Amino acid sequence: MILVTGATGFLGAELARELILRGNSIRCTKRSSSTVPEILVPYPAKIDWVEADLMDAFALDAALDGVTQVYNCAAWVSLKAADKNPMIRTNVTGTGYLVNLCMEKGIRMVHTSSVAAVGEAKPGELITEEHHLDPTLEEDGYAISKLESEMEVWRGIAEGLDAVIVNPSIIIGPSAGLEGSGQIFETVRKGLKYYTKGTMGFVDVQDVAKCMVALMESGISGERYIISAENRPFQQIFTEIASCLGVPAPLKLATPFMMEVAWRGASFWGSLTGNDPAIDKTSARAASVTREFDTSKIKKAIGFKFKPLSDTIGEVCAALSR
User: Is residue 251 in a domain?
Assistant: First the structure.
């Protein structure tokens, strides 16, 4: 039996569907308050849904009964300053529970981390799996939670866990809707006027799912892999999305100073409304930073060829235009 945690999320749902399309019947965890994603609604006979929060070790233990493979996609994501410490504690503790149970039961794991947990390269160099985030210099709670969760998996590997780690860049795809990376497309559609000088990696959600399945089946253990299709400047991404949606492209440069003002204003407004800020300190500063990734390791490991990013952008735009 295969278990997918976080299957109600963007990546988890796509991964679950990928496994089903390959002929598998699977088990998926969800919280009591979560709903089944639309892309998984057609497969009720193929999915055994169980309620299990990562913080509930007993529910996790029950969910793992008869399981031989685990894809861990579950994580709490929040930009709220008040959520930083509980988010780190929840993600790290929950991953630790899962790691311990998988070791105890001899279950193989593919753990979803993020490029947020990968460090920076020297100017002009590509970021590889050999780079590591320095938590003493990091303020982003999500990045810290991903790094420390990943360290729980490395701890398990050192103690005999059969596992591999994936570090995806920004994941895009039509099933994101208006959440997560879908907000990028929706913001452009509504009339984004500013762009930043930053560069980042992007990847199709289905490619991430396919890489995870290939790594699970490869038998590779004790390795981490950056999963990213292309490195693109934000200006180029925004312009291509705008063209695809038939709206004006952003023409004004948002300087680092302007981004500082923006995140402070968003933080203040978020504190008044109780909602997640539209932009936080970390993302505002990252928008002007160049982060380019070397994906030769995953390509060599499983011979993977990534889908052109323009194809995915076109699919997302088409979904938004329906």
Answer: no
